[in-house]
């Protein structure tokens, strides 16, 4: 029978927006689970361009406080800012946050080392980000830890760099707050398969 375990795992991964701190998995285990997921995710020429910083406790809270402060000047009205603040506070209520980065120095070195593929390495680095982020997301979900993926970069890049001593070569690509699942994800809709897939195969004679 066809093994469907990976699809079952993928179905468990959802965007969870109501996150809490009732996490029973030890912090060190969470870090190792996520690190292992990133390590085993593919990167072009094994460049290992995906980097990550793990934030817990006051460091996690500081991330969302600095994000709120940075967005204050970007949101056009006080009413809109209060709605933004409510959203950011929901991330702050989580157990922790993983920051995903791209190692731009490695990308540039790959472009130099493999000039035939020079124009592809930036795209490949982005693909590596997607693979690693999904792998971590699924790994957390399999341990009953909810998460969502946020993109307040590049607005908060400089604040994050200063707050967490980020190496100059690391470029922030995403933020993943995670924690206990306080409310389930909503219903997910799917396009018909015929609108997304095409299959060619040999016709039997």
UniProtKB/TrEMBL annotation:
Keywords: Cytoplasm, Oxidoreductase
GO CC annotation: cytoplasm
Keyword Nucleotide-binding tagged: no
Pfam family, one: Nitroreductase
Subcellular location: Cytoplasm
Biological processes annotated in GO: cellular response to oxidative stress
Domain named Nitroreductase: residues: 10-179
Highest rank taxon of the organism: Bacteria
Protein's UniProt name: Nitroreductase family protein
A GO MF term: oxidoreductase activity
């Amino acid at each position: 029978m066809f093994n469907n375990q990976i699809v079952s795992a993928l179905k468990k991964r959802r965007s969870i927006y109501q996150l809490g701190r009732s996490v029973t998995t030890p912090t060190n285990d969470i870090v190792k689970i996520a690190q292992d997921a990133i390590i085993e995710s593919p990167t072009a020429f094994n460049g290992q361009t995906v980097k990550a910083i793990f934030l817990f406790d006051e460091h996690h809270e500081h991330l969302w406080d600095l994000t709120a402060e940075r967005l204050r000047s970007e949101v056009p009205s006080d009413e809109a800012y209060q709605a933004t603040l409510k959203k950011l506070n929901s991330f702050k209520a989580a157990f922790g946050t993983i920051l995903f980065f791209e190692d731009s120095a490695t990308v540039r070195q790959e472009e130099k080392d493999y000039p035939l593929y020079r124009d592809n390495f930036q795209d490949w680095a982005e693909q590596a980000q997607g693979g690693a982020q999904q792998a971590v997301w699924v790994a957390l979900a399999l341990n009953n830890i909810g998460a969502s993926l946020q993109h307040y970069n590049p607005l908060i890049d400089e604040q994050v760099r200063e707050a967490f001593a980020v190496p100059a070569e690391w470029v922030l690509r995403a933020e993943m707050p995670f924690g206990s699942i306080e409310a389930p994800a909503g219903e997910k809709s799917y396009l018909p398969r015929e609108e997304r897939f095409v299959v060619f195969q040999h016709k039997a004679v």
